[in-house]
Amino acid sequence: MTSRPPSRFPYAPGSDGTPRIAYGADYNPEQWPRDVWDEDIRLMREAGVNTVSVGIFSWARVQPAEDAWDFAWLDELMDLLHAGGIGADLATATASPPPWLTTAHPEILPVTASGATVWPGARQHWRPTSPVFRAHALRLVRKMAERYADHPALVAWHVSNELGCHNIYDYSDDAARAFRDWLRARHGTLDALNHAWGTAFWSQRYSDWEQILPPRLAASHPNPTQQLDFKRFSSDALKEYLRAERDVLREVTPDVPVTTNFMVMGNTKGMNYPDWADEIDFVSNDHYVHPGPQDRDELSFSANLTSGIAGHRPWFLMEHSTSAVNWQPVNLAKRPGDLARDSLLHVAHGADAVCFFQWRQSAAGAEKYHSAMVPHAGPDSEVFRAVTGLGRTLQALAPVAGAGREPARVAVLFDWDSWWASEQDSHPTSRLDYRQEALDWYSALLALGIRADVVTTRAGLDAYDLLIAPVLHVIPEVLAKDLTRYVEGGGHLVTTYFSGVVDENDHIWLGGYPGALRDLLGIRIEEFGPLAADETVALDNATTGTVWTDRITVTGPAVEVLARYRTGAYAARPAVTRRAAGRGSATYVSTRLGADGLTVLLPELLAAAGVDSELPAAARGRVELAVRRGPDSRYLFLVNRTDETVPLPGIGGELLIGPAATEGGFALPPRDVAVLRQSAR
Ligand code: GAL
Fold it and tell me: Nearest residue CA, atom 5 of ligand 1?
């Protein structure tokens, strides 16, 4: 595990003496007349709300002109919150620059790959690398920090909002300049850059740094390493901006923790969050359900990965929705019970805060059809009753606050470099979906009742008995060595198609795929066999492959073939192999089996690693188990994934929430959640 500054979570036990789960929302009172504010505070108290994020989109309100400031309304609001016993996670208000600024300085507006300006009219229309934007934004940050430094309502700073949501990729001249500086720092010399980018190809050799540009709209596929480096640079540029705001906040209010809301598994993959996590005092995340067959598996996966990014320390769920959003093609309302279950699944995976976007549903603007804690219908509504019910539930879970997540024995590895590189253009297939492959493995583990962690390469991988690394496409030499050491030391590694193919510069490991892992896996692949969109292959273990196949030759000793292709171009050849190496093993899965197929394959892989379900047989696959652990207690979160009542015989402990036990144990109603406390000693 990398070293991180000690977590300064706002409500960690010891900070104000009262461990509690934070509960609340984004609160945008500037959209409402003053008399609504009083009702808001009253309803917040009724619902058990103890924390709100304020000021997120308030720049135009607090600074109506370059040298005019209007804090009176925010002063009053902060006072009202404090009087109501509600803490403020105060935004720096820099997320959406006001019209006076973009009119005076259109050079802060982002530019797309094809050279179009991203105009004001929505939000986040600023270049991460613009010195002009930064000067104005940091001036505002300082004003906010100085104004509210000593305000008793202030519990944390909320830097900007969802950095990169709309502006992660900017191709402007500012970006070009900053990209060159970044490349100088990474590669040192032009020769090194020319080598890394493989510029001998297509006559791309650079003879001066000034010739280098972001990968703007080009005649054909832009240079792949240029694209990959631009992704890395873009993430770093926003991280650098985050640091700039944070440094001002730390200078003025050294004792107030700083966060910013991530979008782990959100609509953009541009931000390398594991690499950002060390920059803030506690990790926050926003998550929205994408309705579909794996939607709650995805919620669990995302929360689990957020915990991994937070080093298994408590994190802050900054936004999710009480019901429908407004930005999907069809915005489905949540079913009764889902509001609480979704929230508690985040808590199960380490969230010590449950907050929504937003408190009161807007009457105007682009998000007026987005659900909120107080819907258009007002407090006399199912949603508000569910909101107050959840407030009570979270109070009952106060003892959990501060507890970390108890590590599992199985991990799914999620790697940003591989995510970025494996899905680039000019590849064997455009159908590869990195995130989906990882999620399928996780879904299969859930279906078998196996508790797993989702981790990044920054985690201590040696702690796991079984490490599943789907599409680990980018393998620098040091990672190849680490994985070999892991297996020789007794770890069981599982990897898949298109893994180990390139190094950190996106150069092929030569001599046959999967180059970096060829010896460890004891196999050699001369040619990839991607499948057409309507093509499938049958395996002799009754599973079906899609997307990809490989023509595998077994080369190493101690390699057993766990499954063969039955149909397709590689019929009778190996499809899944496992090599016994050192005290562990290394398994290769050459096709996409999907969650159902992986459920068939996994038991054999789990057995080799000596891992079994911790759930009673009747609950496996139907209930998700997640465990949090404090100094004295373990907290078992049991989440019913089905629409049926599930018996849970033989699981004991003090019930914090959930149905009371009967003689033979207890039964979990459809889509319900129970939390049991056990002694950790
Ligand atoms: C987030 C954003 C919020 C709101 C929400 C709607 O991306 O931070 O301001 O727009 O989505 O789902």
Answer: 357
Question: Which residue's CA is the nearest one to ligand 1's atom 12?
Answer: 325
Tell me the CA–centroid distance for residue 197 and ligand 1, in Å. Answer: 37
Is residue 382 domain-shared with residue 446, that is, in the same domain? no
Residues 581 and 501 in one domain: yes
Query: Which atom of ligand 1 lies closest to the CA of 165?
Result: 7
Ligand 1 centre to CA of 476 (Å) is 36
CB atoms within 10 A of CB 2: 11
Give residue-wise pLDDT tens across range 141-159: 999 999 999 999 999 999 9
Range of the domain at 46: 22-169+235-402
Asked if residue 269 is part of any domain, the answer here is yes
Nearest CA to ligand 1 atom 4: 357
482: exposed, middle or buried (Cβ count in 10 Å: 0-12, 13-18, 19+): middle
What's the pLDDT score for residue 592? 98
- The atom of ligand 1 lying closest to the CA of 161 is 8
- E strand residue ranges, 548-622: 550-554, 559-564, 574-581, 584-589
**Domain containing 576 — which CATH number?**
3.40.50.880
Per-residue tokens: 26: 């984004």
CA of 123 to the centre of ligand 1 (A): 11
Backbone φ and ψ for 38, nearest 5 degrees, come out as -65, -40
Residue of 462, 451, 251, 422 lying closest to 348 (CA atoms): 451
Active site residue 162: yes
**53, 319, 320, 367: residue to mutate for ligand 1 pocket, most atoms within 8 A of CB:** 319
667 and 524 inside one domain: no
User: Which residue out of 162, 245, 298, 437 is catalytically annotated?
Assistant: 162
- How far is ligand 1, taken at its centre, from the CA of residue 353, in Å? 17
CA angle 127, 129, 130 (to 5 degrees): 65
Domain count, the chain: 3
Pairwise CA distance, residues 46 & 378, whole Å: 14
* Any domain includes 184: no
What's the pLDDT score for residue 5? 45
- Do 388 and 437 share a domain, yes or no? no
Residue at a domain's end among 402, 426, 458 = 402
Instruction: Tell me whether residue 195 is in a domain.
Output: no
Measured in Å, residue 357 CA sits from the centre of ligand 1 at: 6
pTM metric for this prediction:
0.97
| Ranges in the chain, pLDDT < 70 | 1-7, 12-17, 663-664
Q: What is the pLDDT of residue 17?
A: 60
Burial of 535-553, coded b for 16+ CB within 10 Å and e otherwise, reads eebebbbebbbbbbbbbbe
Based on the fold, state whether residues 384 and 520 are members of the same structural domain: no
**pLDDT value, residue 12:** 57
Question: What's the pLDDT score for residue 47?
Answer: 98
> What pLDDT shows up at residue 660?
80
Distance CA 139, CA 130 (A): 14
Q: Are 103 and 149 in contact (CB under 8 A)?
A: no
Same domain, 499 and 424: yes
Residue 510 included in any domain:
yes
pLDDT digits (tens, 9 = 90+) for 536-545: 999 999 999 9
Is 319 catalytic? The answer is yes
Last residue of a domain, one of 552, 577, 608: 608
Q: Which pLDDT value is given to residue 3?
A: 41
Beta bridge partners of 360: 374
Atom of ligand 1 nearest to the CA of 162: 8
Q: Same domain for 592 and 623? A: no
What is the CATH number for 645? 2.60.40.1180
pLDDT at residue 581 in the model:
96
